[in-house]
């Protein structure tokens, strides 16, 4: 069973049909929308500031979501996929975004709607990622626009994760 803990008087809140893997950790001031999934070894730690997550967002294995004390919240939109071992810290991720495996998004960055952050990319503090763009590298820079094919990947990934969750819950 997932670890869900209250911290400093805040208890995580979940929308309908959320799936939390057995060893996922969600603590403190976290508000999660509907149809979200938090996978194995993921940590959503709202102890020092708030974390707000929209609907149909998937937080894959090993992801860490955190914020900065008295400074930055983390706000994540709808239909966002945060791939394995990414770190999302004190930033804003708008709707329909794909964050690649091992990517790091740092404080006060804003990831625009419909964007892709490539695997292993590091988004430095205060970076403004233009909507509909693909960023890659260390530090990450814009490499191109996200075309129709990539937009379809973003939507398909966000749509598939709730389906995957049913594989783990159908016998409960």
Task: Outline the secondary-structure elements.
Elements: E1 3-5, E2 13-14, E3 19-20, E4 25-32, E5 37-38, E6 43-53, E7 58-59, E8 64-66, E9 74-76, E10 81-82, E11 87-89, E12 92-93, E13 98-99, E14 104-105, E15 110-111, E16 116-117, E17 122-123, E18 128-129, E19 133-136, E20 141-145, H1 148-169
Give short descriptive properties of this protein:
8-stranded mixed sheet; mainly beta; 13% helix; 172 residues; 37% strand; globular
Written description of the protein model:
The strands form two sheets. Strands 1, 2, 4, 6, 8, 9, 11, 12, 14, 15, 17 and 18 form a twelve-stranded parallel beta sheet that branches. An eight-stranded mixed beta sheet has the order 3-5-7-10-13-16-19-20. It is globular, with a radius of gyration of 15 Å. Strand 19 (133-136) and strand 20 form a beta hairpin. It is 13% helix and 37% strand. The mean pLDDT is 97. It contains one helix and 20 strands. It has 172 residues and is mainly beta.
């Amino acid at each position: 069973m997932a670890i869900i803990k209250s911290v400093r008087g805040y208890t995580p809140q979940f929308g309908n049909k959320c799936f939390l893997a057995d060893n996922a950790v969600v603590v403190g001031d976290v508000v999660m929308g509907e149809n979200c999934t938090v996978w194995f070894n993921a940590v959503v730690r709202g102890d020092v500031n708030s974390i707000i997550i929209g609907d149909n967002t998937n937080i894959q294995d090993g992801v860490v979501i955190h914020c900065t004390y008295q400074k930055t919240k983390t706000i994540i939109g709808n239909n966002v996929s945060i791939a394995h071992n990414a770190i999302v810290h004190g930033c804003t991720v708008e709707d329909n975004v794909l964050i690649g495996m091992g990517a790091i998004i740092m404080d006060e960055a804003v990831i625009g709607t419909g964007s892709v952050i490539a695997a292993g990319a590091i988004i430095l503090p205060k970076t403004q990622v233009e909507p509909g763009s693909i960023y890659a590298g260390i530090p990450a820079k814009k490499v191109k626009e996200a075309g129709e094919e990539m937009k379809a990947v973003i939507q398909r990934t966000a749509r598939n994760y709730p389906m995957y969750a049913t594989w783990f819950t159908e016998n409960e």
